[in-house]
Every structure is written in structure tokens, then in C-alpha cells.
Amino acid sequence: MYDVTFTRESGRRVAVVCYQARAEEIGAKAGEAFGRVAEHLARTGTPVTGPAVSCYTTGPEVFDVASGFVVEGEVQPGDGVEQCQLPSCDIATTTHAGPYDELAKAYDALRAGVLAHGRRLVEDGIMWEEYWSPPGTPPEQTRTVVCWPVVPQDD
Question: Could you tell me the pLDDT band of residue 26, with boundaries at 50, 70 and 90?
Fold first, then answer.
């Protein structure tokens, strides 16, 4: 069962590595990106202040992805790491507990919940996933929050 909630994203900063990937490649590439970002942040003394995040925009066959960690201050670029800022906007969220290969259920629930509340997803911008479980967490205990900007249906 998925609960869909609506909140306001404040526009947090995220230190990221950007890449393109097909759906089946995202897990491995995101893992590499998280490692590079973590090493860079440690080297530059930039503290992580939130979850691991992957931001997505979709293309015809591949996703444009930016994976990294929420940080409080400015990101010193280097080592392929750059700063990304989440949009300040209204978002819909739902939490998926379980393996990543079952995330489609969360997306289906999010879409249905958004429509049921008289809103629509902003399809032409970014959306993101927040990963709240550390590496090594058993798949059935993994917690992922799906976040997607929304507007009223009549916009």
C-alpha cells in the first residue's frame, strides 16, 4: 500500500555526477556516481546533510541522470562532481519499501494518487528518488522515496 503526500520542495543542493543510462544500467552507474561524489565531498570537506538522490529526465531511449548526495553549502566542482539544485516547487511523494526492481509499483501509485487529488505530474522536468537505506540493506528492507513535481490539473 502506498500513501501519496504533497509537500513543498525547498530547493536543496545536491552534489552529483551526471550520466546517461538505459533503465537496466542505472543501478550500476548510480553506485559508481555515489562513490565518486562521496570521495570528492570527503576530499573537499563538504558534509552530506541528507539522503542519496538520483534526479531523472527521460529521453526517447535513455535517461539523463544526476546521482549524488544532499549537501548544505556550495559544492566545489571537480572530479566530475558538480552542483545540482532541486526545484523549489510543489511535489508529490510516496515511499517504496522493498527491492528497486519493484519501484514501478510506487510510480503507478504516485500517478494514480496525483490524479485522484486533482493534480498532474510535471512530465517535462526532473523528478527524483531519495535513497534512505545504507548500502548492504537487504532488498526487502530498502526504503526509497519517489518525488515528482506537480501542478493543478487545469494548469
Answer: very high
C-alpha cell at 18: 551526471
Say which range, 48-52, 54-58, 105-109, has the weakest mean pLDDT.
54-58
Dihedral pair phi/psi, residue 58, rounded to 5°: -105, 145
Residue 138 sits at the vertex; the CA angle it makes with 133 and 142, to the nearest 5 degrees, is 35
Task: Find, among 84, 69, 89, 70, the residue nearest to 6 by Cα.
Answer: 89
Closest CA to 80 of 13, 23, 35, 131: 35
Q: Scanning the structure block, which residue is given the C-alpha cell 526509497?
A: 144
CA distances from 116 to 108, 112, 128 (A): 12, 6, 21
Predicted pLDDT at 155 = 65
Q: What is the pTM of this model?
A: 0.94
Rg (CA), the chain: 15
